[in-house]
Please model this.
Amino acid sequence: MTDPYQDPLTSSPLLEVRDLSKYFALSSRWLSRIFTRQPRPVLKAIDGLSFQILRGQTFGLVGESGCGKSTVARVIVGLYAPTRGEILFEGQFVNQRNHRFSRASLHSRMQMIFQDPYASLDTRWRVRDIIAEPIRAFKLAQSRAALRNRVAELLLQVGLSPSDGGKYPHEFSGGQRQRISIARAISSNPDFLVCDEPTSALDVSVQAQILNLIKELQRRLGLTYLFISHNLAVVHHISDHVGVMYLGRLCEVAPKRILFSQPQHPYTRMLLDTIPDLSLTGRKRQPVTGEVPNPINPPSGCPFHPRCPVTNERCQVEQPHPGASGESMVACHAVEENRLQ
Amino acid sequence: MALLEVDRLRIEFPTRRGVLVAVDDISFSIDQGEVLGVVGESGAGKSITGAAIIGLLEPPGQIAHGTIRLQGQQINGLPNEAMRRIRGAKIGVIFQDPLTSLNPLYTIGRQLVQTITTHTDLTTSQARDRAIDLLNEVGIPAAKRRIDSYPHEFSGGMRQRVVIALALCAKPGLIIADEPTTALDVSIQAQIISLLRRLCQEHRTAIMLITHDMGVIAETADRVAVMYAGRIAEIGPLRDVVKNPKHPYTVGLMDSIPVIEEENDELAHIKGAMPGLQEIPLGCSFNPRCPDAFDQCRRERPDLMPTGNPNQVAACWKYDGTTNND
Ligand SMILES: Nc1ncnc2c1ncn2[C@@H]1O[C@H](COP(=O)(O)OP(=O)(O)OP(=O)(O)O)[C@@H](O)[C@H]1O
Ligand SMILES: Nc1ncnc2c1ncn2[C@@H]1O[C@H](COP(=O)(O)OP(=O)(O)OP(=O)(O)O)[C@@H](O)[C@H]1O
Ligand code: SF4
Ligand SMILES: [Mg+2]
Ligand SMILES: [Mg+2]
Model:
């Protein structure tokens, strides 16, 4: 028997974004605006992102602080309206008139898990009410007994016990609270989960438990994930495809194995070189140079050019666009011109 | 003689509901020029151990017993003024958030010059030259110009470099660095790690590097102490602890870290979570989570004992009776 959820060849995109952009207008001082006649400064938190997430798979999004990962998550789940670009769910445009998917009907099918399991749970509610909230909101339970059974089932699914439902969030450890967030997120039977740094606040031994749980739920429920992390090893472990972001843009998107074995974009290569050498192989690495520039005033041309070891004049003036290179999409002039080894 | 010797240190927090033991009888030492990595999960007692060494334990926390010796001289229990002089002159400090070490109201030059003149005989203008040298050394570009900037004019990574310069002002023999890279981006983290490494080699400065991140330890430390629930579970050379851990907790910890070189569907993990201070179990504090636990583990608390490798000791009954036969 072939499982359509697992076979990448037959798998179709569950979610696709095209040219997705989100700009924030920043407040500037009133006077300086009048005198310099400058428009309000705009921060391009994400700018022209395109990628697909196949059904039943995990797309990992990785990049340094401020590169726009959480903004991508928030635009996709509808917390922010995109400035430009499109989101397609099951091939249908989201958020446009005359289409099957309004945000409301999508709501139960897309859920989000946040980094901070302390802040994201309402501390005044009992765990069972926290988990039941989406079920009630979407009227997914026929009776009180059905609701109770469903909550108990969810608690068991995430490795807690039904009796934990009567407790409050503060009675749980960080890892257990993240389990509660996960139970809440899957309670409306979503197809798609956005996980924004779900293990970054956890200790490694607990992180391993949560990563295992996330993978197990995917197998059991056929879930599709957008998984965001700044930790490359975690992204490697969890993802099927990976996108690398820098200053609001995607530098490289590739199947996981290819991205990690044949990284192409100079920034991807630099990031991979920062991965700690836990096997103590003493592998040779390029020293990392420079810092991420201020996003309000990004460099001209390729945003990575001031830190790039293979930059040239074209890179300084012309912005590279993503192009296919083998199985990868890479936005780099050097790759396009075959200047890289 | 080791540079720093910590002997049977016990740190307690008296509370209304009884005394909480946050650090329980730990002993370790650091040699000149050595980087000792102290790793462990949140709440294991890493930071308060560091705070106790530099005399910054916040009340009601107190050292219940044990000694801390620097170059053979006991430094715990010294009057505040004497301790303040040691901190700065003999022990430099780097915290996770660079802003806790920097005064936002003064230029970084003023802060560096003040620290240098306090701890050395240099004049103000000599101190300024030294400050510029230090900024160059920690990798601040255009140090001559940037020295008159305020902390907020620097990025997070650059601020941490300034804090490292500040810690180095009086050429201390020991630096206590508590999560110095945790707040930084991975690419900046890699830069700060190699900076610390280089400084340590060039000046023969010892570093006690506290972190929850085994990756940082693997990149920097010569030896590693693994802390669990207020105790040292295992201590030994980096390679031995990482490649051939002895304590079941370290074994589980190493297995739970995803690594790029390995492709596996499931990560090994330790069941449960580290106990809070109120609920530390009898016997070995790891016993409820330990796959190897036996009777003795539930009754008696193991001390660090030989494991067969002469430099690696572990607090685990599995090694009871093991000797270093070589
Ligand atoms: N509501 C907002 N208003 C203005 N700027 C914003 C807003 N939200 C995010 N930004 C800016 O957009 C950029 C991208 O932020 P985002 O939170 O998406 O980054 P991130 O990759 O998630 O970073 P981190 O790893 O720190 O979570 C940053 O420069 C941030 O300051
Ligand atoms: N003022 C206090 N009163 C009671 N307990 C305290 C106090 N300060 C710290 N503790 C406890 O001491 C233990 C050790 O804390 P410490 O800050 O050293 O942990 P850590 O290993 O540095 O953890 P982290 O990785 O989170 O920084 C913790 O269980 C903490 O709750
Ligand atoms: S486009 Fe140019 S500057 Fe950008 S990463 Fe590629 S080579 Fe470097
Ligand atoms: Mg974020
Ligand atoms: Mg700490």
Summary: The radius of gyration of chain B is 21 Å.
